[in-house]
Design brief:
- It is a single chain.
- The protein is α+β, with helices and mostly antiparallel strands.
- The protein contains 4 helices and 14 strands.
Length: about 270
């Protein structure tokens, strides 16, 4: 009985050279490898002429060819037991099975890259930070194309690096050696995800704890790029009311669109 069981298990094992996974898995494996290579290329950026923008590279096309041999095999021990098996062309068969029908098949295909946005250079995000009369901050993201066109519907993610913020806060004069604990229910963004409007702008207000000296490490993620800003809650800049803040923000964005600098404007600072 045990010999019969062992023989049955051996008969169920794939032969040398047989395909042990569906064809879909092989094609998905090729696609996954292609994606990994493209991600490496995306991280390899070269400055263009005059350092105006970055040039990225994309694999244009990948062709593949999968040759298979389809067999209808019958067991020599049980001639009524017939099984379809697929293997690469030229794969070796072993064991006591005898092939009754064999047909070769070739699958050809190609993965063709379709550049996003018709191959245009990626949009350029700009980050601005504005202190409000309340002591809180507006974190403003403006996204434009390289020729100044506003980009609407771009997802902007706002977050806070808590460990870094606590480290920076405890490094401030007056906080050193005190082991200051940041109360995170008092430091937060009012919106974690904002899409840019038709003018290419996204706003989120950062509320800070005014009872202690704080430095907040803000993480902005837009278009697959991550930027970390350090906002000093103890810095007293020229404050403006919420209504004035909205107007100044729009004026500043218009100023940037016309090619002006973001530095030296009262009540506003950015990177």
């Amino acid at each position: 009985m045990s010999d019969e069981l062992a023989q049955t298990e051996n008969n169920d094992k794939p032969e040398i050279g047989e395909m042990t996974a569906p064809i879909d898995d092989y094609l998905l494996g090729i696609a996954d490898s292609l994606q990994r290579v493209q991600r490496q290329l995306n991280n390899t950026k070269v400055l263009s002429v005059d350092g105006m923008s970055y040039t990225t590279y994309q694999l244009p096309k990948l062709e593949f060819e999968l040759k298979m041999s389809i067999q209808l095999s019958a067991s020599s021990e049980d001639s009524d037991k017939k099984v379809f098996r697929a293997k690469p062309v030229g794969g070796q068969s072993s064991g006591s099975r005898s092939s009754e029908v064999e047909q070769a098949s070739v699958i050809k295909g190609a993965f063709v890259a379709v550049p996003s946005d018709l191959g245009k250079p990626p949009p350029i995000p700009r980050t601005l930070v504005q202190e409000l009369e309340s002591g809180d901050f507006n974190v403003i993201i403006n996204v434009q194309s390289v020729i100044g066109e506003p980009q609407a519907g771009i997802a902007v993610h706002y977050n806070i690096d808590r460990p870094l913020s606590e480290k920076l806060t405890n490094g401030l004069d007056g906080n050193k050696g005190k082991g200051v604990k940041v109360e995170w229910d008092k430091i937060y963004f009012d919106h974690a995800l904002v899409n840019t409007d038709k003018e290419g702008n996204a706003f989120s207000k950062l509320t800070v704890d005014s009872s202690i000296k704080t430095r907040v490490a803000v993480i902005i993620d837009v278009l697959g790029k991550t930027e970390t800003l350090v906002i000093d809650g103890t810095t007293k800049k020229t404050k403006v009311s919420n209504e004035e803040a909205a107007k100044k923000a729009l004026d500043l964005i218009d100023h940037i669109k016309s090619g002006g600098s973001i530095f030296g404007l009262g009540g506003l600072f950015g990177r």
